Amino acid sequence: MKNPLVSVCMITYNHEKYIREAIEGVLMQKTNFDFELVVANDCSPDNSDNIVTEILNNHPKANRIKYFRHGKNMGGISNFIFALNQCTGKYIALCEGDDYWTDPYKLQKQVDFLEANEEYTLCFHLVEYFYQNNEKPSYINPAKKFQKRDYSIYDLIRENFISTCSTMYRWQFHDLPLPELFSNHLVADYPLHFLHATKGKIGMIPEVMGRYRIHQGGVWSLTAEEIAVKRLKDAISMYNDFNVYTNEKYSTFIDERIYYFERYLMHRYINDNLFKESMKLFRMRKEGVSVKDQFRFYLHYYFPNLYSFLRMIKNWTKNRSLY
After folding, report:
1. Position 22 in a domain
2. Do 197 and 265 fall into the same domain?
3. What angle do CA 265, 266, 268 make, to 5 degrees?
4. At what angle do helices 251-271 and 291-302 cross, to 10 degrees?
5. Which domain CATH number covers 68?
6. Does 1 fall in a domain?
7. For residue 73, what are the domain limits?
8. CB 168 within 8 A of CB 123
């Protein structure tokens, strides 16, 4: 296929239960332009390769797929970079191998939006988050109170409200290498959102056109204690990299987010009995910590059982007020 207008970037690892649904959600798209689907399988040890191969051999739209299976595991970020480098479209859309699209006109609607609005470098749509084992009700992201047509980089600094499978970029890096901040962190889509938001506006299409699957094998659905500190430290590092990349243009807003994660990290250290690390971070940040947050820290640090009890009471009272 020559010069597709859109490239869909799909990375996959151990998604044998979900990869067919993800691929078919892309191939069902109805458009008035050409698009390609780049699938990069990071040496999955499961049956994913056989499923993709069966689709390639039998699906009537298989010619749209560019499939790559690595001989050894590269890791999520490296595989993502590889897949992006295989994309040739003016626009790049994302869909990981365990999520899927539900609207056959998703790509058309996003392209129509970006073609009509040159000042936007990124657009996204609403996504339904659902639990694979149905342990909790599904919900829509972003929540209704946060939904609006236009967003700026300031909104994005405060929170990553863009679901990966909803993203379409007016791609800025066909002739430029991706900055290092993209490849140095645990997540890849948020830095990409940020890099594009420095060059234009963010638009939202207020329709649910995809589903994000929350399951035990999902990277950001993991809640194990051993990775909590790593995730918090990586978020702080990522925001520091944002600050350097933009020559501190947004430093006031970025510093607020860094403080947000550092505050959680202080308490996380205490929960993990890493008291020296917690006090070190607190002293480093003390001048910027509010009196209220200082009180909370000292209470947690010196009286952890009392702090936990008060938190439990607070949460119980909050939950009771919902009924």
Report:
1. yes
2. no
3. 60
4. 20
5. 3.90.550.10
6. no
7. 6-220
8. yes
For residues 127 and 202, membership in a common domain is answered with: yes
pLDDT digits (tens, 9 = 90+) for 11-36: 999 999 999 999 999 999 999 999 99
| Residues 228-248 pLDDT 10s | 888 999 999 999 999 999 999
What phi, psi does 128 have (nearest 5°)? -90, 120
